[in-house]
Write a structure and sequence with these properties.
2 domains, Rossmann fold, N-(1-d-carboxylethyl)-l-norvaline Dehydrogenase, domain 2, 48% helix, binds nicotinamide-adenine-dinucleotide, 8-stranded mixed beta sheet
């Protein structure tokens, strides 16, 4: 049974995953090498919970109890975790290094889940000492709001691991879909080429960002236009996912738009850096 969770990475996904885990009753340690990211995550979670209290969907006592289940650290502090959820940057070398190191530290029966948007779970499983206990848990952004968790079975994921993760997702009150291990899984295989095509539409001077987003919002009933969504996801993450699709399928239809590459080169990563296709004020 899962009681203690470690969330590796306190970025926009890590802090949301940590909040939802703590609200579901798990004791959560959030690990990030950046103290600034730890502090930002703590502040974001406290603000989100206070907003829920303000709306009447959480009691003050539940808020205090949730916060008391959360702690922050720069490295995994002990071995006693039942589940690790990794949410560091979308970089295969970084994830492989951290998961390999973590697997040496965690107790034998702990499960390792990755929130990767696109990277092969089988590849990540094989760098650990427990390929049968590695699985994909792909949350959506913002995690406390979005209902879906996409579960990815690697070639080596055991049925027992799948069942435990299914129970955790049920306890969170979220809805699960299951994907086999293929580049981009379900959501990003479909979503990211659309976002990339929107960036090509801008790159080729076909329309302004506002008109591209308005066209897709009002014309196809999407709550957010693709460029605004790319800014929310993070343009570095979008580029990393397109690169995984491009290389994983060896198919030129997934080539990342050069404009996306250039925005990432410029450090215009979207909301998290204050500028992407839109401006969000200095960060
Ligand atoms: P982010 O840039 O907001 O956060 C990444 C975090 O990883 C940072 O806090 C960084 O300090 C930390 N980190 C980097 N190296 C580390 C290390 N060695 N040890 C500990 N922490 C380290 O990124 P994000 O948007 O939260 O994305 C994280 C993961 O979630 C990626 O795999 C991404 O593909 C996936 N994801 C993102 C979204 C989205 O919409 N952004 C949605 C679903 C899944």
């Amino acid at each position: 049974m899962v009681q203690q969770v470690v969330v590796l990475g306190a970025g926009q996904m890590g802090n949301g995953i940590a909040q939802v885990c703590a609200q579901s009753g798990y004791h959560v340690t959030v690990v990030d090498i950046s103290e600034q990211q730890q502090a930002a995550a703590q502040a974001t979670i406290a603000k989100n919970l206070a907003r829920l209290v303000g709306k009447g969907s959480l009691t003050e006592d539940d808020k205090i109890a949730t916060l008391s289940r959360l702690s922050f650290a720069q490295a995994i502090p002990h071995a006693d975790f039942d589940l690790l959820i990794e949410a560091v940057s979308e970089n295969v070398a970084l994830k492989a290094k951290l998961l390999s190191e973590a697997s040496l530290k965690l107790k034998e029966n702990a499960i390792i889940a990755s929130n990767t948007s696109s990277i092969s779970l089988t590849q990540l499983a094989m760098v650990t000492n427990r390929p049968d206990r590695v699985i994909g848990m792909h949350f959506m952004n913002p995690v406390p709001v979005m209902q879906l968790v996409e579960v990815i079975r690697s070639l080596t994921t055991s049925e027992a691991t799948f069942t435990v993760v299914q129970q955790v997702i049920e306890k969170m009150g979220k809805t699960m879909v299951v994907s086999q291990d293929a580049p981009g899984f379900i959501v990003n295989r479909i979503l990211m080429p659309m976002i990339n095509e929107a960036i090509f539409t801008l790159y080729e001077g076909i329309a302004s960002p506002e008109d591209i987003d308005t066209a897709m919002k009002l014309g196809t009933n999407q709550p957010m236009g693709p460029l605004a969504l790319a800014d929310l996801i993070g343009l570095d993450t979008c580029l990393a996912i397109m690169t995984v699709l491009y290389e994983g399928f060896s198919d030129s239809k997934y080539r990342p738009c050069p404009l996306l590459r250039n925005y990432v080169n410029a450090g215009w990563l979207g909301r998290k850096s204050g500028r992407g296709f839109y401006e969000y004020g200095a960060k």
